[in-house]
Amino acid sequence: MSANPIVTGGAGFIGSALVRALLDAGAKRVSVIDNLASGKRENLAGVAERVDLHEVDIRDAGALKPLIKRGATVYHLAAIPSVPRSITDPNPSHEVNINGTFNVLSAARDAGARRVVYAASSSAYGDTEVLPKTESMRPAPLSPYAAQKLMGEYYCSVFHSCFGLETVSLRFFNVFGPRQDPNSPYSGVLSIFMKCVLAGTPPTIFGDGEQSRDFTYVEDVAELVMRAAEAEGVQGRVFNAGNGNRYTLNETWRLLCDIHGAAIQPRYGPPRAGDVRDSQADVTAAVRDLGHAPRFSFEEGLRRTLAWYAEAERTA
Ligand code: UD1
Predict the structure, then answer these.
(1) Are 128 and 99 in contact (CB under 8 A)?
(2) 123 contacts 175 by C-beta, under 8 angstroms
(3) Pocket of ligand 1 (CB under 6 A)
């Protein structure tokens, strides 16, 4: 019998979507490692009976080690995923994103795991002169978070070259969708936009709103992550995990208002430290080598996400 897949951060927004996708794709059970710092049990509602949830912090190497099983595929998504938090409070981000990643890779190596798929970040690119951003560009992190996520990639590649552990790193580009928590000062911008449009209140846009992002729907990311676990000849490599488009925050807010039938002017605040100006993925390598095939246009993703938030508010 093959080992159950393991998802670190599996009670989080992206992790719980991946858990659902793995179960839909035929996994009998999924093992989740999550300290529930930002993850939540309710994110696994409806699938909890097929999930083994281990409330363990990846900084705790001793507790982590026995949970990683021989032959298992490990999806390493646990992180403190915020650019501004890594600036205001860099220590925990460093410990989770770098030391925690090292612990996951070490445990995977020691156990003889089959492969580790790592959630890297497009923030590693920083501001590039050219768009879209391709994997061959030189990384130029602008925040501790970006540096930490890049270090995780380097560790993945070195665990492959030095120890023979199969790893694949995916640079996520602004993932959005159902279950993204809008209630923290570090929440992703689209979750905040969703909350505002439903409440009829203006969001605060940091800067002029002309910064752009390649917003990627969470189900497309989950699908790509699973492809990365199976693809041949990609061990040790790094791939963009984006949609290939980019939208400014101003365009995005307008689009969301149009979808909802609202007309609300945003507020503007000072630009945020550590922010990348523009972000857009070249997905050529992911399409060619991983079979990446995003199914959701930005607008369709926004519609689905808005419907989910509206329903969550209705039933709260
Ligand atoms: C996001 C992810 C990060 C991921 C990266 C990949 C989150 C919280 N962060 O970082 O984990 O690795 O993409 O590229 O999902 N903004 C506002 N108003 C707000 C909140 C944000 O204007 O209320 C702006 C920010 O200043 C920034 C943009 O929206 O310009 C996106 O910010 P954010 O959603 O925090 O994501 P990233 O920093 O791009």
Answers:
(1) no
(2) no
(3) 81-83, 121-123, 172-174, 186, 188-189, 192, 203-206, 211, 213, 249, 272, 275, 279
- 209 occurs within a structural domain: no
Is 103 within 8 Å of 58 (Cβ atoms)? yes
Q: State how far the alpha carbon of 215 is from the alpha carbons of 24, 169, 173, in Å.
A: 24, 19, 6
- Determine, yes or no, domain membership for 151: yes
Tell if the pTM clears 0.90, that is, is over it.
Answer: yes
Which domain, by its residues, includes 77?
A: 5-173+218-244+281-294
Give the closest residue (by CA) to ligand 1 atom 36. 188
Alpha-carbon distance of 206 to 301, in angstroms, equals 23
Q: Would you say residue 222 lies in a domain?
A: yes
Peptide bond into 132 cis (omega under 30): yes
State CA 93 to chain mean position distance: 15
Confidence (pLDDT) at 2: 83
Overall domain count for the chain = 1
Distance between CA 140 and CA 126 in Å, rounded? 5
Let me know if residue 206 belongs to a domain: no
Name the closest-CA residue to atom 32, ligand 1: 189
- What is the domain-level CATH number for residue 127? 3.40.50.720
- How many whole angstroms from 233 Cα to the centroid of ligand 1? 32
- What is the Cα–Cα distance from 131 to 278, expressed in whole angstroms? 8
Mean pLDDT by 10 residues, the chain (316 residues): 93 98 98 98 98 98 98 98 97 98 98 98 97 98 98 98 98 98 96 98 98 98 98 98 98 98 98 97 98 97 98 92
